[in-house]
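Could you show me some protein's one-letter sequence and the numbers that encode its backbone in two labelled lines?

___
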Amino acid sequence: MKKPCLVVLFVALGVSLGVTMGAERAAAQGPAGAGASSAAKDTSSSTGGHSLNPIKWVKKDPKPSAESRSDLEKKLTPKLQASGLLPASLTATDACAPFVALDECLASLHASKNLGIDFNCVRADVTGVQTNVDLSGCKGTIGDKAQNLTKTLRMLKPDADAKGQAKNAEKQAKDDLKDLGS
């Protein structure tokens, strides 16, 4: 008599576990049928406004806005003109317009001054953007594809230590930005 009772008990326990797990899976899938989309929106608000996606838990640094870049460029212009990196007729905004990042522009300015290369040649090769500036005095071919500073320096000044000069110019650019407090 004990044996059949235990079998019935285990079967009942298995059925109840199966039903419970099935119900949880159905609830995890969300509602189905007419009005399901509005019901699904309502269930997401029951989590207290927090996402259940762990990727969204990680805070991201806000990207600098265009206003902060233009402010930096305005602050940089007199400093760059005083150090001889920019001529008096050119602003940092105009010089750095084709560059995606301001530090790339500053590194190109420093490298061109350090090696005595025309900045327009460096800018055209690093950004891949052809402006209305005369590039006929540039060594090598200035292509339409952007290249890194090391490759550009190697092409424009083959006898220079391109890798070392590029690292030095990038350090000078970081120092310039650090001096401005960014």
